[in-house]
From TrEMBL:
<dbReference type="InterPro" id="IPR001296">
    <property type="entry name" value="Glyco_trans_1"/>
</dbReference>
<keyword id="KW-0808">Transferase</keyword>
<keyword id="KW-0328">Glycosyltransferase</keyword>
<feature type="domain" description="Glycosyl transferase family 1">
    <location>
        <begin position="175"/>
        <end position="316"/>
    </location>
</feature>
<protein>
    <submittedName>
        <fullName>Glycosyltransferase</fullName>
        <ecNumber>2.4.-.-</ecNumber>
    </submittedName>
</protein>
<dbReference type="GO" id="GO:0016757">
    <property type="term" value="F:glycosyltransferase activity"/>
</dbReference>
<dbReference type="Pfam" id="PF00534">
    <property type="entry name" value="Glycos_transf_1"/>
</dbReference>
Length: 336
């Protein structure tokens, strides 16, 4: 039997990918057992003939599960970045998609830095418990090999996958609308984007809007957005949105502007491209792995973001070119 261990996945992009993976596994009728975070009970796709264990997401609970079931599986896919806590007889694939375990932006809050460093230490201890690593881009592959100092026998496979959105018809008034689909965590860099947009809008012909998706758990950031809205700036925060609503947001935008300081992939970038948006992106390796953006900027420089916003209005940019595509079939083939 196959184990899908996604114990630490409960929100954001990882949850979108997990839902897609479950849907495809169930559709193909693969025989698996799921180990899932108890925070997503009732919040996942339908699971018909397969079994599920819901556990509180911590190392001790996960270790107990492996201790009790280490002989029950022939293949294991660890989808939450960490290999098993003990060595099993199964062939183990670990899908790694959290760059912050390997490389922390310098302006990250001290509390977050400590948490990520602790998780990185656990990752380093468990790295010998997997047979294969899977990542979404070649840049992540090189970073993982460098940071964890693998021996030559370790195999790291690059297999990106993501669910495609059904493309909604573009609205006719979308020309100068910008969208940034992302949670509000600090490294996503919303403050600099908002500050840059405020300057840009004040000096432009005032025909644009900036659309964001900041959920209620980021109250301080939501308050900052409300301050700007009260000053007359057209910043529309949709909050957390489902996939159907997301299609409509993309349909009303011409540009995805993506200032994140750290990404292993950047699901929103691919979604935006496939929805007909051009990408204005941070000039960082993850961006150039996913696409050739129409315009690039230094994500730490507000003035640079303002400059590319002005260039987007003037039409001085090239079309975005997508470089990464869905390879879910390759991932599922490994599990067969």
């Amino acid at each position: 039997m196959i184990l899908i261990d996604a114990l630490y996945i409960n929100n954001s992009g990882g949850k979108i990918l997990l839902d897609y993976l479950i849907e495809e596994i169930e559709q193909r009728k693969l025989k698996v057992h799921y180990l899932l975070d108890d925070r997503i009970v009732g919040k996942h796709p339908a699971i018909s003939d397969n079994s599920v264990t819901f556990v509180r997401a911590n190392l001790m609970k996960r270790h107990q599960f492996y201790k009790e079931n280490k002989l029950n599986f022939t293949k294991i896919l660890c989808f939450g970045n960490l290999p098993p806590t003990l060595k099993t007889k199964a062939v183990v694939y670990t899908y790694f998609h959290q760059k912050l375990f390997l490389e922390i932006p310098s302006n990250t809050h001290i509390k977050s830095k400590i948490i990520f460093k602790m998780k990185a230490a656990v990752l380093n201890l468990l790295k010998v418990k997997t047979d294969f690593w899977i990542v979404q881009t070649d840049a992540m592959k090189q970073l993982l090999i460098h940071k964890l100092q693998f021996g030559s026998a370790v195999q790291v496979l690059t297999i990106p996958f993501y669910p495609s959105l059904e493309i909604a018809k573009k609205t006719t008034n979308a020309k100068y609308n910008y969208v940034y689909v992302s949670a509000g965590t600090h490294h996503k860099n919303h403050i600099k984007l908002i500050d840059a947009y405020q300057i840009f809008y004040g000096s432009s012909d005032k025909k644009s809007e900036l659309h964001l998706t900041i959920g209620d758990e980021f109250g301080i950031l939501q308050d900052y957005i409300k301050e700007k809205v009260n000053l007359g700036f057209p910043i529309i925060n949709h909050g957390f949105v489902n996939r159907n609503a997301l299609k409509e947001i993309y349909s009303k935008a011409s540009f995805m502007i993506y200032p994140s300081l750290s990404e292993s992939f950047g699901l929103g970038i691919v979604e935006a491209i496939e929805s007909g948006c051009e990408v204005i992106g941070a000039d960082l390796p993850y961006m150039h792995e996913v696409c050739e953006p129409s315009l690039c900027f230094d994500p730490n420089n507000v003035d640079d973001i303002v400059a590319v916003l002005k260039s987007s209005v003037s039409g001085k940019f090239k079309p975005t070119k997508q470089k990464i595509h869905n390879q879910l079939k390759d991932l599922l083939q490994l599990l067969n």
